[in-house]
Predict the structure.
Amino acid sequence: MKLDIIGDIHGCFHEFHELTVKLGYQWKQDIPVSPAGRKLAFVGDITDRGPQSLKMMNTVYRLVQKDLAYYVPGNHCNKLYRYFLGNKVQVTHGLETTAAEYEALEKKEQQQVRKAFIQLYENAPLYHVLAQGKLVIAHAGISEELIGKQNSRVKTFVLYGDITGEKHPDGSPVRRDWAQNYKGEPYVVYGHTPVREVRKVGKTYNIDTGAVFGGKLSAIRFPELEIVSVPSTMPYVAEKFRELDKAVP
């Protein structure tokens, strides 16, 4: 199994297109296809904040439908899912950009978009265990004792990280640095927390390099463990990047 796992895209379709081309994919009928038979994988948060969330969403949906990609949901995906279900959610923290795109569509197009994303989300596992158990893909990561389990604790962890229940002054949740204590056998590839460079700690890789905040969109090739990135065209927002150690270029 050969994969190219892509970090949080957040509607940055231009960067996604550039990255897939750099990875050697060819675009056919508006989706990227690998001549070498590789597959894409997404760590979630494919929408919100960026300029082309619906186009990004539709592309991932089609790739998964054609068995050309793996997808796990992120916290933004979860919120968008609840929004499409008609649940009461705050249309803030990036969801407002996706909602504005959606509301600008004709009714029939809205129904198609809503149906496709609900199907994508409901058919996605909380996390993927791939390559005969050698690789785990989870949006915000996963601790070794949770791998193989499915419960509310797992759902909270993979969507939001190892949260303590406390809040930072800006309202964001306080999270433990679970990667520092990870002793599991599988590699864990995740995103969720923007870092300036892909962060390797042991067998864990955070590949969210803040494309939507003016950083980079990054991928890790598996099993090669090679990092491939393209620069973002979005404005740089320095305060969105966490200062974490052990980054790799």
Summary: The two ends are 24 Å apart (CA to CA).
